[in-house]
DNA sequence: ACTAGGGCTTCCATCAACTGGAAGGTCAAC
DNA sequence: GTTGACCTTCCAGTTGATGGAAGCCCTAGT
């Protein structure tokens, strides 16, 4: 398979696949004309990568997951651990975003949003703490 | 004020402040020894930037907000609009993360997490759609 | 045989938003 | 006069790609 074929199969752009080769996530063969030649297993790996990334795993996580995926004797605990850590990061991020959202929603709500210059949003950004003289 | 002072006041690292100067967000003066000299207004701007960034506004948003902040005749509607757009982006992002979280939580829950190699997480990553031969 | 097109190759640059580090100038204190 | 903190610039690296240029390669059509 050439790169265009695995790109279509995996849903990843060819550019991304080349990048994944660069960073050592896949190691396609080369045919005599210099073209990358992907085996079935490479296509599987790329699809795996696409799905892991879609779940927000970092490239390094993906690298570990891929190694575990290829290791028939891995313990599921190792995988679960990576996933759980990622889950925690996601939870943390969600909480952070919700906090931001709440503050911002409050400001947006407080702002008249008309032609006048008075703007609680700017006022808040300008003076929240450390500036109360 | 030297950079260390505004850094302490604004809570931003000196590196970041230099970077903000690079990209034209602040324009401190220079004293004869080449050191940056920050006025009160610069310190205010940096604090403003710190808070805007903490709310997740992009640098370009910050640039616009800062311009509006400095424009005494701005219409609050302009500010509100930027904030509302940002709010939408946040909502979108939160929804996305929640979706990821749900999928991942499901997988983590399904995985025994023991010494055995069977792992529903890897199985799912490996075969979800496009692979049912 | 020639040409047009599409696909493939490499390499280099760019994005966001910093951050780290090296090499070196400056300043206040002891 | 020398330490040590603070300042300067510049270059590289981070994460995860993405865009583009220059240039092979291959197939189909004429």
From TrEMBL, chains A, B:
SUPFAM superfamilies: Putative DNA-binding domain. Residues 1-68 form the HTH merR-type domain. Signal peptide: none annotated. PROSITE patterns: HTH_MERR_2. Gene3D superfamilies: 1.10.1660.10. NCBIfam families: CueR. PANTHER family: HEAVY METAL-DEPENDENT TRANSCRIPTIONAL REGULATOR HI_0293-RELATED (PTHR30204:SF94), REDOX-CYCLING DRUG-SENSING TRANSCRIPTIONAL ACTIVATOR SOXR (PTHR30204). This is Transcriptional regulator. It comes from Puniceibacterium antarcticum. The lineage of its organism: Bacteria, Pseudomonadati, Pseudomonadota, Alphaproteobacteria, Rhodobacterales.
């Amino acid at each position: 398979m050439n790169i265009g074929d695995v790109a279509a199969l995996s849903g990843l752009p060819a550019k991304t696949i080349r990048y994944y080769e660069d960073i050592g996530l896949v190691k396609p063969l080369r045919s005599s004309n210099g073209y990358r030649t992907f085996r079935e297993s490479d296509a599987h790996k790329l699809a795996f990568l696409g799905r892991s990334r879609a779940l927000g795993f970092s490239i390094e996580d993906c690298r570990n997951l891929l190694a575990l995926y290829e290791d028939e004797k891995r313990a599921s605990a190792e995988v679960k651990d990576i996933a759980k850590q990622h889950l925690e990061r996601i939870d943390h991020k969600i909480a952070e975003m919700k906090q931001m959202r709440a503050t911002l929603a409050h400001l947006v709500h407080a702002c008249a949003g008309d032609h006048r210059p008075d703007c609680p949003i700017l006022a808040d950004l300008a003076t929240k703490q450390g500036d109360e003289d």
